[in-house]
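Recall that a protein's primary structure is simply its ordered list of amino acids. Everything else, from secondary elements to tertiary packing, is in principle encoded there. The following example makes that idea concrete.
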Amino acid sequence: MISIERLTKRREFLAAATGARASSRGFSVQAKARGEALARGEGPARFGFTVTRKTGNAVERNRIRRRLREIVRLAADMDARPGFDYVLIGRRDALSLDFRQLMRDFSKSLQRAHASAEARGHGERAATQGVTAPQSNATGHGSDRL
């Protein structure tokens, strides 16, 4: 059984947004490997949930969020990887889709996100091979332009 935790800080959500993405009808998944956890081969899978105001009123948004949390609770053991951060972005269709269909979509989305992360170099291979970030210039910015 894999250990699962929640993403709580904004910077954790922003970091996951730079990772691989996979979409389904009811939600979108962002996945990013945490390099330090994967290098040691440890760390829980962490999940965050986002549902924007465009999706509906507070009652509908909370219902979507509850459905997504339940999907993660039931299916994350099978598909989530230790040392990864995931953000599920809920869509309005998550309210009307069959729950079993949402579970299947979740599994497929995680598999696609993992494949995409490995192809982009954000997966386990890149984290364990010591990939380094580009060096910034003296001003502290990532670009050499001033």
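Helices lie at 10-17, 35-40, 58-79, 99-120, 124-128. The first strand starts at residue 4 and ends at 6.
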